[in-house]
Write a structure and sequence with these properties.
Layout lengths: L12 E5 L16 H16 L2 E5 L19 H7 L5 E4 L5 H9 L5 E4 L6 H5 L2 H8 L4 E4 L24 E3 L1 H15 L5 E5 L4 H11 L5 E4 L4 H7 L3 E2 L9 H13 L3 E3 L3 E5 L8 E5 L2 E2 L4 E5 L1 H12 L3 E5 L12 H15 L3 E4 L3 H8 L8 E2 L3 H8 L5 H7 L1
Parallel strand pairs: 1-2, 1-5, 2-4, 3-4, 5-6, 7-8, 7-15, 8-10, 9-13, 15-16, 16-17
Antiparallel strand pairs: 11-12, 11-14
Adenosine monophosphate (AMP) binds next to strand 14.
Length: 398
């Protein structure tokens, strides 16, 4: 496998799978361009080398072929702006003659964007013929779409077989994601704490099981903590609880003991009399929540204990909020965790925030540049931490 930085793209047409699946409003304005910005360093390096760039991506979930709503043409003006005003050529079909001719005419330093890959069902089906047609457009394939790395689609994985090993590369974004995840999973300096939160135990079982093999401490917060607390015999009122996961929770606690991993559950909780931003609130032990009340955030004691564990850790992984951080009354716990991680990072620890809502939380609270790495791929990062092989990564490495 070649490395992206060492590769000389001069006179090469680089076919880059990017993740430009950005949210658009009804006027087709991009409401969050994070994913586009994340791909710019990769594009610039290729252009600066004297290569040309062909970008391919999906956008949304089009059901029945081409639709204006999901056209990538809406992204052209902003892409051009992000590239310093460069002209962006567009092919309104990702395969076929127009794409082939436009790609053929691209000169060094030029950029072309292909229409939505998912206008073809073949993309998600991982159809080989479709992948071969895409592959014809470029001399070298660069995978920079971490957000879809867990999918074995035509453009994210199947296409790899049409390029020799030295012409299959991770882009800079992908390289950053893979290096950070590997650092946490395989070379973690101890103590290693994993902070797992969010709503459901069922979503996080595999990740917890995998981390039991690696972490020294696991902090469990958010709605999922109450299934554990109830499984241990606690009284959790109306808090979230997955009745069918009580045994799983007990099994995890037992396994942790056997493996000498400390599991930390919130000693106290901020409770509310309804699921509402204006609910009445109180603080109680997490295992003594009155009927009719529910735990919506970790309490001050839990904040203190969790922060202490985080501050003494050398490797930190965070996935999932400690409470309903979307409501101001229940965001203190999540904020306290972000502060502790920022302090530990400042003191030299490595911290990775990955997967969905904890990423939104660090962005919302302004902590993104105070942690070592913020992952861009929700589902992909989750599967990575579950110990799965991601097709988009394996395709480049094999
Ligand atoms: P997840 O997508 O599983 O990471 O869960 C994130 C969601 O869990 C967020 O929308 C939070 O509001 C929600 N959440 C966190 N803590 C709680 C809680 N104690 N009760 C209900 N929902 C929660």
């Amino acid at each position: 496998m070649s490395t992206f930085s060492a590769y000389d793209f001069r006179n090469q047409k680089a076919l880059i799978r990017v993740d430009f699946n950005v949210p658009l409003n009804d006027k087709f304005e991009i409401t969050d361009d994070t994913r586009m910005r994340a791909a710019i360093p990769t594009i610039k390096k290729i252009l600066n080398d004297g290569g040309s760039v062909i970008l391919m991506s999906h956008l949304g979930r089009p059901k029945d072929g081409p639709t204006d709503k999901y056209s990538l043409k809406h992204l052209i003006p902003h892409l051009s702006e992000l590239l310093g005003g460069a002209r962006v050529f567009f092919a309104d079909d990702c395969i076929g003659e127009q794409a082939w001719l436009t790609a053929g005419m691209l000169r060094a330093g030029e950029v072309m964007l292909l229409e939505n890959l998912r206008f073809y069902k073949e993309e998600e089906k991982g159809n080989e013929e479709f992948a071969a047609k895409l592959a014809r457009l470029g001399d070298v394939w660069v995978n920079d779409a971490f957000g879809t790395a867990h999918r074995a689609h035509a453009s994210t994985a199947v296409i790899a077989k049409f390029f020799p090993a030295e012409k299959r590369l991770f882009g800079l974004l992908m390289e950053g994601e893979v290096t950070s995840a590997e650092k946490v999973l395989h070379a973690s300096e101890k103590p290693f704490v994993a902070i797992i939160g969010g709503a459901k135990v069922s979503d996080k079982i595999l990740i917890i099981e995998n981390l039991l093999e690696r972490a020294t401490d696991i902090i469990i917060g958010g709605g999922m903590a109450y299934t554990f607390i109830r499984a241990r015999g606690g009284k959790i009122g109306n808090s979230l609880c997955e009745e069918d996961r009580l045994q799983t929770a007990l099994d995890i606690l037992k396994l942790a003991k056997e493996k000498n991993v400390s599991i930390h559950l919130p000693e106290d909780s901020v409770i509310a009399d309804k699921f509402d931003a204006n609910a009445n609130t109180a603080v109680t032990p997490s295992d003594a929540i009155p009927d009719g009340w529910m735990g919506l955030d970790i309490g001050p004691k839990a904040e203190g204990i969790f922060s202490e564990v985080i501050r003494k850790s050398k490797t930190i992984l965070w996935n999932g909020p400690m409470g309903v951080f979307e409501m101001e009354k229940f965001q203190k716990g999540t904020k306290a965790i972000a502060v502790a991680i920022a302090e530990a990072t400042q003191a030299g620890s490595f911290s990775l925030v990955g997967g969905g809502d904890s990423v939104s939380a660090v962005n919302q609270f302004g902590f993104a540049d105070k942690v070592s790495y913020v992952s861009t791929g929700g589902g992909a990062m989750l599967e990575y931490f579950e110990g799965k092989v991601l097709p988009g990564i394996a395709a480049v490495q094999s």
